[in-house]
């Protein structure tokens, strides 16, 4: 089954995450499918706007936690440096998938309903415009996996909000926050009634599609210069190539999947 479905409707290209049984969690295949979709979109000269949604009741429950332990399965003879290089390569690959989304030539609009957790927040920060429904629930949830967000949230949302109490509180606690707080944070620009979300984002897409493609291209290329972003993301990947080898990660994943409290060793 395709993890990401792409359909062109006139000048609008609709990307839909298609893993509703696992609440659209992010498998390694999904990252590859994002990169492939971006290639198709960037080659199509008749696409004016991209709309990204998630099938089912939830936009995205973050990293696929059933697949995640496979990331850490290495040949028994492999030393720590070699394992770290494998993890660095994987993180860079996933960062590139997110960055490729932010560098789609035309504006990208996301509609978020239900849960948008962890990697889901990294994902939406790569879009130009984000609307959500009243029932949306967000979390910068990586801390509950004993890790720092490493594929975009800290760089695309955190650096601009680095000294705000709200962003730091959300990053340190992983607390679920609602649509109103997401609006306050600038994570979304509009909250709409659940049943109107799709209608509203496609209406916005139709409006933008009537504007000059050159004008839109120029605005996007200036706004998406993302100064020093690549360096920031690289520092993050280089940090987590070591930090992901903590014992805290397996403790956290088990606690998350079994819905029990994690007990961590002292620093
Ligand atoms: C390495 C660096 C790159 C990226 C790192 C990203 C980090 C993150 O993304 S951190 C966030 C990780 N995600 C989570 O911690 C969420 C885990 N899920 C939940 O807590 C709950 O499912 C819920 C979202 C609160 C919803 O709860 P509920 O309504 O009770 O539904 P469930 O029965 O729990 O779930 C239904 C179904 O979906 C499967 N599922 C949910 N989330 C995930 C997931 N993240 N990965 C894989 N599968 C998931 C869940 O297991 C259920 O499937 P079953 O087949 O019925 O087991």
TrEMBL record:
It is found in: Peroxisome. One of its GO terms (biological process) is fatty acid metabolic process. GO terms for cellular component: peroxisome. Its main location: other. InterPro entries: Ech1-like (IPR045002), Enoyl-CoA_hydra/iso (IPR001753). It holds the Pfam family ECH_1. Pathway: Lipid metabolism; fatty acid beta-oxidation. Keywords: Acetylation, Fatty acid metabolism, Isomerase, Lipid metabolism, Peroxisome. One of its GO terms (molecular function) is delta(3,5)-delta(2,4)-dienoyl-CoA isomerase activity. PANTHER family: DELTA(3,5)-DELTA(2,4)-DIENOYL-COA ISOMERASE, MITOCHONDRIAL, ENOYL-COA HYDRATASE. Belongs to the enoyl-CoA hydratase/isomerase family. This is Enoyl-CoA hydratase.
């Amino acid at each position: 089954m395709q993890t990401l479905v792409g359909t062109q409707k006139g000048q609008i290209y609709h990307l839909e995450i298609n893993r509703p049984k696992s609440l659209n969690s992010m498998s390694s295949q999904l990252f590859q499918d994002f990169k492939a979709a971006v290639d198709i979109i960037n080659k199509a000269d008749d696409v004016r706007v991209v709309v990204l949604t998630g099938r089912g009741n939830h936009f995205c429950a973050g990293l696929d936690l059933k697949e995640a332990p496979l990331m850490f399965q290495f040949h028994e003879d492999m030393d720590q440096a070699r394992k770290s290089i494998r993890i660095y390569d994987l993180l860079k690959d996933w960062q590139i998938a997110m960055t490729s989304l932010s560098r789609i030539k035309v504006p990208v609009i996301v509609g978020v309903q239900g849960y948008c957790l962890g990697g889901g927040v990294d994902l939406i920060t790569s879009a130009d415009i984000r609307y959500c429904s009243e029932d949306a629930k967000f979390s910068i949830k990586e801390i509950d996996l004993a890790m720092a967000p490493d594929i975009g949230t800290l760089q695309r949302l955190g650096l601009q909000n680095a000294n705000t109490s709200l962003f730091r509180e959300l990053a340190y606690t992983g607390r679920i926050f609602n649509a109103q707080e997401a609006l306050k944070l600038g994570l979304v620009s509009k909250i709409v009634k659940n049943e109107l979300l799709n209608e509203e984002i496609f209406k916005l897409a139709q409006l933008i599609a009537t504007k000059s493609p050159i004008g839109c291209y120029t605005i996007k290329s200036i706004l998406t210069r993302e100064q020093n972003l690549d360096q920031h993301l690289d520092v993050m990947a280089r940090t987590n190539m070591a930090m992901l080898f903590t014992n805290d990660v397996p403790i956290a994943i088990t606690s998350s999947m079994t819905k029990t409290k994690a007990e961590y060793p002292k620093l």
